[in-house]
Amino acid sequence: MRYALINEEDIILRNGDLHYNSWYKPSLKNHPRIHFNISHCSSAIAVAISAVAPIGIDIEAIREYSPYSLQRCFSKEEADYIKNSMNPNKEFFRLWTLKESYVKAIGLGMSYPMKKVIFKLNPSLIDSNKAKCNFILLEDNSNYVTACCYGVGKAINYGKLHRIYQCKKDIFNG
Q: Rounded to whole angstroms, what are the CA distances from 8 to 5, 82, 95, 97, 111?
């Protein structure tokens, strides 16, 4: 996070510079126009920064999904899409990261009912029932999925997404 803030906005993060909302989403006390979000999973980290609008990011390692989470957090259409796909675990986490990026962008996190955020994925399109948001889905061959929601509250395709930083946690060892 420190690297991203210095690199993108020339902001040096110091102790006490962060403020947290009621749902623990961090923001910068002295830079209210800078929006950022952080996500981590077992062995990877992702950070996103925007100078335009709230932003949310989620990174997940693809693994066996939870049937309980499928039932609790996904619409019937989404659940059917996941179950009938060639790779249900991957499709679960593609949709999960999109949902989580949205609830993090709006600052409510898991207190927001994720079942109300609905996605339909096509090969080159992410369709959502949430207007005035942009979504990016990043996938690579290392078994991770990252989703970012940005431009919340702005017109579609409005604003600039600076950069998404991703790395494996083991680069910090030694």
A: 5, 37, 28, 24, 30
Read off the DSSP letter of residue 10. -
The helix/strand/coil state of 57 is strand
Q: Give pLDDT, residue 53.
A: 86
Assigned token pair, 5: 């803030």
Site of tokens 């800078």: 34
Q: How many CB atoms lie within 10 A of CB 40?
A: 13
- Cα angle 116-120-131, degrees, rounded to a multiple of 5: 55
For the chain, list residues with pLDDT below 50.
158-159, 171-174
Question: pTM for the whole thing?
Answer: 0.87
- 3-state DSSP call for residue 54? coil
